[in-house]
Amino acid sequence: MKIGELSRKTGVSIRSLRYYEQQKLITPVRLDNGYREYSPFAVEQVKTIRLYLGLGFTTEQIAGFLHCVLQNKESFCREILPMYKLKIAELNEQIQLLTMIKSNLEERVHSILEENGGLAGQH
């Protein structure tokens, strides 16, 4: 199938598909006329790539385990468990930072409201 058809079947833009190709996540065959020709399996590859992007992984990280998860069940890929644990640790750090920022903002709002007799933001 051509790149436009792959785009329609997966809902992924042609630009993104070309990027995935650049990152060596998908590999089309080049026809004599220069067109990209994708196998029917490319649809599953792209959907899998989108799944892992949605979980917060980078294309570089995905490249490290994509072949394994496409060939086997996820639970048989030794590469993926450490990646999941690392991603969870990163998310926990981000949650902690965001919680602190939110708390600081709430304190500032409370302080402003107290200083203005509860009328801050009213004109």
TrEMBL record:
This protein's UniProt keywords: DNA-binding, Transcription, Transcription regulation
Positions of the HTH merR-type domain: 1-68
Entry GO MF terms: DNA binding; DNA-binding transcription factor activity
Keyword check for Transcription regulation: yes
Organism: Paenibacillus campinasensis
Database matches in InterPro entries: DNA-bd_dom_put_sf (IPR009061), MerR-type_HTH_dom (IPR000551), MerR_fam (IPR047057)
Protein name: MerR family transcriptional regulator
